[in-house]
Design goal:
Oligomer: homodimer
Largest sheet of chain A: none
CATH topology of the largest domain in chain A: Tetracycline Repressor, domain 2
Structural class of chain A: mainly alpha
CATH class of the largest domain in chain A: Mainly Alpha
Helix content of chain A: over 70%
CATH superfamily of the largest domain in chain A: Tetracycline Repressor, domain 2
DNA sequence: TTTTCGACTATAAAACGGATTTGGTCGAGG
DNA sequence: CCTCGACCAAATCCGTTTTATAGTCGAAAA
């Protein structure tokens, strides 16, 4: 990526982290990036485009982090565990970094929706593959994979909840215990 | 409860369902309840008090419904299943009925918080007892009950999510499958 | 040609202030 | 013990003006 583009992204990123999306103005970004406002329009179509790029980059880093976490683990169980754990911790970091942004959560910007959807299908693919792998290794019981993945996704949503309402929780512990239960169940084995 | 009080509650309830909390005025309630506005202040301390009472009543009905659902089931598994199922379906009804209110979700009124907390400890008690019962009957594995209850609560939060973002989902099916997994797990039994 | 920017515009948001609404009180009277 | 009309202060609404902001354009620098 162009050095100028990076300056813009970097400036915008800091500002948005501090002030949020709406409150950050193009003038501020230009000042921080040390260039005329108009210049930025040579590199980006518009304001949204800048933020879309930021989100895209962050999203890519996030995915890579998740992939790394999975690859560092061995068993399917551990891979899933590490996936969820890493996901929650990263989300916590994010929600911490973009604190002001959490408030704008409601006015969902369409480009974020796009990234979100893409992320969900990425997540779906990963989890599906891990479940499949586990079944092949006779570790997980043969089952409707889509259902299981959907349930894990729902559980993850539940784990995310405290982040949304800014409630302090031990995400790591909760994640671990949740996945544990999904693996073992709570019924006595026949 | 006093007949007048009921008239007020009933009028307020209809109006709040249609227009939401903030948009419903005391004058409107008074008109619908066929009495002078001042009269209402003989029965209720203030506007919030009226809505608090509505919420309290609804909450009581909700609890009773849940208790009934549990009592109609036999095994601990079925009781938990019916609990979650009934809870989700009722919540869906509610969120449907108070459609406009969902938008006011953010400006959380403190008296709702109170009811919410009370409900959570009610729920916690119910689920704890059911898990305990299951363990005693050698149906569930001995475990940290608080943890299991917390996990079920988290799973429920995840199930609630589509209601919050007004996304269509088959809550009944999802509830069933989620509880199923929490019971059975997905690992092959040793 | 590619890149930069100051001057400019159109539009959206904020500030404002007066009129209206609204939650709540009070004292008279049923 | 109830009911209510008259009343008040504070909040809300609403039309208007001012300001801020995203985005354009053409000239000029590199």
């Amino acid at each position: 990526m162009n050095e100028k583009k990076e300056r813009i992204i970097s400036a915008a990123k800091e500002l948005i982290a501090q002030y949020g999306f709406k409150k950050t103005t193009m003038d501020e970004i230009a000042a921080k990036a040390r260039m005329g406002k108009s210049t930025m329009y040579y590199y980006f179509k518009n304001k949204e485009d800048i933020f879309a790029e930021i989100v895209r980059i962050d999203s890519d880093l996030f995915r890579q982090k998740l992939i790394d976490a999975i690859q560092a683990a061995y068993s399917p169980q551990d891979k899933i565990m590490q996936y969820v754990r890493t996901r929650m911790l990263h989300l916590k970091e994010l929600s911490n970094y973009y604190k002001t942004l959490t408030n704008e959560y409601l006015d969902h910007y369409f480009f974020i929706e796009q990234v979100r959807e893409d992320f969900y299908s990425f997540e779906n693919k990963i989890l599906s593959d891990l479940i499949k792998e586990g079944i092949q290794q006779n570790i997980f019981t043969p089952c409707d994979i889509d259902v299981v993945v959907h349930m894990i996704a729902i559980a993850i949503k539940g784990l995310e909840y405290p982040l949304f309402i800014q409630k302090e929780q031990d995400l790591e512990k909760d994640s671990k215990q949740m996945i544990e239960i999904i693996f073992k169940g709570i019924e006595v084995k026949a």
